[in-house]
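Project standup — Tuesday

K.O.: blocked on the structure for the chain from last sprint. Re-posting the sequence here as requested.
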Amino acid sequence: MRIGILGGTFNPIHVGHLVLAEEAREKLNLDKVIFVPAYIPPHKKDEELAEPNDRFKMVELALRGNSDFEVSSFEIEAKTTSYSVETLKAFKQKYGEETKLFFITGADSLGEIYSWKEIDQIFKLSNFIVANRPGYEIGNVPNGIDVVTITSLEISSSLIRKKLREGKSIRYLVPEPVREYIIARRLYR
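H.V.: unblocked you, prediction finished:
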C-alpha cells in the first residue's frame, strides 16, 4: 500500500491543499492521502489559530465525497505540540512496515526542514515529497527529497483569514461546506 500523509495547520483548509493532495495522489500512484491537522504546529506558534476541533471539522467537510482522502485525528487527540516524526512512527505501526508512506509538504517548508524534530528519522520512515508553491523557489533539493510539480494556485490560509477579517468573500477559495462552517462559527473575525 502507498499512503500519502499531508500534515498541516489547515487554518483553514482551502482548494490549494486539495489540489496538492489530488495531484500528488495521481503522480505518486498513492492508494490514499491522509490529512493530519496539527494540534499545535511547532513552526507557527504566533499564528491566529482556530480551535483544533474546528480545523478538524473543516478538513472533514472538505474531504466529503472523495474516497481517496481521509482525515486523521491523531495529532489533535495527542493534545500536544505536533511533530511529524511521531505521526509517521504511529502510521508506520498502524499500517505495517510493508506500507510505503509519502510525507507531502509544500516548498514553503523546504527552508526550515532541518529545524524539524528528528528529520533524519522522517526521511527513514517516509519518502519525503516537496510540492511547488507560488512565491517559493525550489532550488537545491537535499538528498532524500523528491519534488512533485502541481498546478500552482496562489491561495493561502493567511490570505483567506485576511479576507474574512476585511469582510471580503472567500467563495471558491475553500469548499462550500467549509465556507458555510466558517461563517456559521464566525471564525477568523
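K.O.: great, moving the ticket to review. Strands lie at 2-8, 32-37, 69-71, 100-106, 127-131, 145-148. Residues 60 and 71 are 6 Å apart (CA to CA).
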